[in-house]
């Protein structure tokens, strides 16, 4: 049975790993872009809710695969479940100041 | 409220992030051949320059127009729909083999038909037409699986109608080709124009307008308060092309005006949709956007030229030049858009393929980006050559200048070579660099079978 502190560590490790996943179009990490809605750990593993900037877009659908792949490499012993969700829809307000600056839109 | 999840997406390490798109070789094959088609069109325009100032109905000119519409634009748009349709409709095409056969058939048609027009023998034109009709029927059947889904929204609905117009356009073409032998009816200029507008607006224009409604918000990182202009553009264009073509075909002025009015509303709404996407964007402008601005300028020019030809009584020779320039401007609108979007779509497909081979990083060590998969300077050069080339073509037609048209042909042709080579070499260079870094065997690609659930969007 994992302790609450171990679960917190798992969540932090998952976030850290997801910062290495870049949107290949924009060259920005998906955490700063606000695409990760939730990361939670329980006794069975880590569950991630993520979204994409545009539903059904042919390009962004690559990202969930990359996120899942990266998490598996970073947390090889942990069961990963990644959900792509659309509610609430992503909006540019979710981007961090750093991202807005990088896009020249601060 | 959480919407239902779709079935688990396969993540078994293939170059197929959604489980629905065809192998990369299918869309990339179409797009590579479209690049060759663009080059061929430029050369055909160069060769036909002297004739184009005399008559747009000269066999060399007809050949060049078919190179543009079939070998370049139709091949490119069919390739894009084979990639985009399954994603937007969340359903794969019916058969990969049929997709490859479609590529072979349409390329064969696109090169045999102009050859038949320009050099003969006479039987080659109807023969190529029949190959083309069989090919597009096969394509329509194959694409019907993703395009008949009900939850694809405006883009899929628009593509559905545009494929119908493709079938009608090709059927028109076959009848015209057979008529060359049988002489059933006179081929008045207005009837040729009906065929041209069916193809350029009903098939190619509507397909692009529909897809743009999905691509622009993504590429511009744009969240518009309303997508109403996009809906109007797809609906008006979809409805308006039929009466426009029928009015021209049977010389029914009110019907042509009705169709022309609806088409004008649709294309104007398309421009408004683009402006709205640009206004609400959240990233700075870059290469694709410059292609799109140039493309839009040609669309506005086409609208002005078409409006002039329809509204003012001018001498017949001037009317022919203006209408020919309008057709050239429509080809420029779509051509610039296709070349620009190819600089997004090809790197994306190549990126997915490279990752499946384990190539994840740029030689500098940072994660691979789409923009790493082509060189910037040649891409800007392609924009310059195509933009100036198409402008010179229109000016040459209006000003009756064979030199301008010939120069335009060379520039457009060179643009085709530059963009095709640039987009083909970029992924190869990254792949080679990765092999040098990691030895003969790059990092293992893909992930284990797994646990990604995709909510219905």
Mean pLDDT of chain B: 89
What is the CATH level 1 assignment of chain A?
Alpha Beta
- Report Rg of chain B: 22 Å
Largest sheet of chain A: 3 strands, mixed
Instruction: Give the amount of beta strand of chain A, in percent.
Output: 15-25%
Proportion of residues in β-strands of chain B: under 5%
Strands in their spatial order, largest beta sheet of chain A = 3-4-5
Q: Roughly how many Å is the radius of gyration of chain A?
A: 14 Å
Number of strands of chain A: 5
The number of distinct structural domains of chain A comes to 1
What is the count of β-strands of chain B?
1
The shape of chain B, in one word, is globular
Order of helices and strands of chain B: HHHHHHHHHHHHHE
Number of helices of chain B: 13
Looking at how many chains there are and whether they match, the oligomeric state comes to heterodimer
Distance between the termini of chain A: 45 Å
Question: How does the major sheet of chain B shape up?
Answer: none
Question: SS-based structural class of chain B?
Answer: mainly alpha
Q: Can you count the helices of chain A?
A: 3
Structural class given helices, strands, pairing of chain A? alpha+beta
Order of helices and strands of chain A: HEEEEHEH
Q: Topology, pairings included?
A:
The complex is a heterodimer of chains A (106) and B (457).
Chain A: H1 4-18, E1 22-23, E2 28-29, E3 36-41, E4 46-50, H2 62-74, E5 80-84, H3 97-102
Parallel strand pairs in A: 4-5
Antiparallel strand pairs in A: 1-2, 3-4
Chain B: H1 25-47, H2 49-52, H3 59-89, H4 96-119, H5 124-147, H6 153-182, H7 189-219, H8 228-249, H9 253-279, H10 287-311, H11 316-356, H12 376-398, H13 402-438, E1 452-454
Helix pairs in contact in B: 1-3, 1-4, 1-13, 3-4, 3-5, 3-6, 3-7, 3-11, 4-5, 5-6, 6-7, 6-8, 7-8, 7-9, 7-11, 8-9, 9-10, 10-11, 10-12, 11-12, 11-13, 12-13
């Amino acid at each position: 049975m994992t302790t609450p502190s171990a679960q917190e560590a798992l969540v932090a490790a998952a976030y850290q790993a997801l910062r290495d996943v870049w949107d290949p179009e924009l060259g920005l990490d998906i955490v700063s872009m606000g695409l990760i809605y939730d990361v939670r750990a329980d006794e069975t593993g880590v569950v991630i809710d993520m979204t994409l900037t545009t539903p059904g877009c042919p390009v962004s659908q690559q990202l969930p695969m990359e996120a899942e792949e990266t998490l598996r490499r970073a947390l090889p012993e942990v069961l990963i479940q990644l959900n792509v969700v659309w509610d609430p829809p992503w909006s540019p307000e979710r981007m961090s100041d750093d991202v807005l600056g990088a896009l020249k839109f601060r | 409220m959480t919407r239902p999840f779709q079935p688990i997406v396969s993540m078994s390490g293939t170059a197929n992030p959604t489980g629905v798109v065809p192998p990369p070789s299918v869309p990339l094959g179409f797009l590579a051949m479209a690049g060759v088609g663009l080059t061929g069109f430029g050369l055909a325009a160069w060769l036909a320059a002297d004739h184009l100032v005399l008559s747009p109905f000269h066999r060399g000119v007809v050949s060049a127009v078919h190179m543009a519409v079939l070998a370049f634009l139709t091949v490119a748009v069919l390739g894009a729909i084979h990639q985009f349709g399954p994603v937007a409709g969340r359903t794969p095409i019916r058969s990969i083999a049929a997709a490859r056969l479609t590529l072979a058939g349409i390329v064969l048609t696109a090169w045999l038909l102009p050859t038949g027009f320009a050099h003969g023998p006479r039987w080659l034109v109807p023969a190529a037409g029949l190959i083309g009709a069989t090919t597009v029927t096969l394509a329509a059947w194959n694409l019907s699986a993703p395009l008949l889904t009900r939850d694809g929204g405006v883009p899929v609905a628009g593509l559905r109608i545009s494929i119908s117009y493709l079938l009608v356009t090709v059927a028109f073409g076959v009848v015209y080709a057979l008529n060359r032998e049988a002489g059933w009816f006179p081929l008045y200029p207005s009837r040729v124009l009906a065929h041209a507008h069916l193809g350029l607006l009903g098939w190619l224009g509507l397909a692009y307008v529909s897809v743009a409604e999905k691509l622009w918000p993504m590429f511009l990182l744009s969240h518009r308060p309303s997508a109403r202009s996009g809906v109007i553009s797809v609906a008006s264009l979809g409805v308006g092309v039929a009466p426009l073509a029928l009015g021209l075909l049977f010389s029914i002025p009110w019907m042509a005006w009705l169709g022309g009015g609806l088409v004008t509303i649709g294309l104007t709404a398309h421009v408004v949709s683009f402006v709205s996407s640009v206004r609400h964007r959240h990233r700075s402008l870059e290469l694709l956007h410059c292609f799109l601005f140039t493309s839009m300028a040609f669309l506005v020019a086409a609208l002005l030229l078409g409006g002039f030809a329809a509204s003012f009584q001018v001498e017949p020779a001037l009317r022919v030049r203006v209408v020919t320039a309008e057709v050239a401007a429509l080809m420029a609108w779509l051509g610039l858009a296709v070349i620009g979007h190819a600089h997004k779509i090809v790197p994306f497909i190549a990126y997915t393929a490279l990752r499946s081979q384990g190539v994840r990083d740029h030689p500098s060590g940072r994660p691979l980006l789409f923009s790493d998969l082509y060189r910037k300077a040649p891409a800007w050069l392609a924009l310059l050559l195509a933009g100036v080339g198409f402008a010179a073509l229109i000016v040459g037609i209006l000003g009756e200048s064979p030199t301008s048209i010939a120069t335009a042909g060379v520039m457009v042709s060179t643009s085709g070579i530059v963009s095709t080579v640039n987009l083909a070499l970029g992924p190869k260079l990254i792949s080679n660099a990765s092999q040098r870094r990691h030895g003969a065997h790059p990092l293992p690609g893909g992930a284990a079978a797994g646990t990604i659930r995709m909510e219905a969007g």
